[in-house]
Specification:
about 150 residues, 7-stranded mixed β-sheet, 4 helices, about 35% strand, globular
Length: about 150
């Protein structure tokens, strides 16, 4: 059974999972990786979820304030051996629930065209594609999404 733990970006399991995420993205993004990496720093993130099965950390995600109404979803990752089991969906739902508890009414996120699994997760979870925001405005390989939380 999957257990979800709310923590922050100092959590050692989160740090380890993000290292694996960055290794995966380095391969997928190639020459574009350093551009995207600058927007994915994890220091000082207060809202992190780590998923466990039998004490083993399998996945993570985080939210951080984008403005007074919207949280930005960051650092979503599930280890390769645990993919396809709904863990990312559980993490995302927990992040959305936490955002609502903190009185935010929506979530936004950016993912890349080279991450079709992530795009599928977000569409399946009710996210709608929006024009690229912030640092991603002129980046053709970025796909940005938003979900209104009720």
């Amino acid at each position: 059974m999957i257990q979800l733990k709310r923590t922050n970006s100092k959590d050692s399991d989160f740090v380890r999972l993000v290292k694996s995420l960055d290794e995966d993205l380095q391969v997928r993004d190639g020459d574009e990786h350093s551009f995207f990496a600058q927007f994915n720093k994890i220091d000082l993130i207060q809202n992190v979820v780590v998923a466990y099965n039998n004490g083993k950390a399998l996945g993570c995600g985080a939210i951080k304030p984008y403005n007074n109404e919207i949280m930005e979803v960051k650092r979503m990752f599930v280890s390769s051996e645990a993919r396809g089991k709904g863990i990312a969906t559980l993490i995302l739902k927990e992040l959305e629930k936490w955002a609502q508890e903190l009185n935010y009414n929506g979530c936004i996120l950016e993912t890349g065209e080279k991450q079709p699994e992530a795009i599928g997760l977000y569409v399946k979870s009710g996210y709608e594609r929006i024009p690229n925001y912030g640092p991603y405005v002129e980046v053709n390989s970025s796909f940005c999404f938003r979900k209104k939380l009720s």
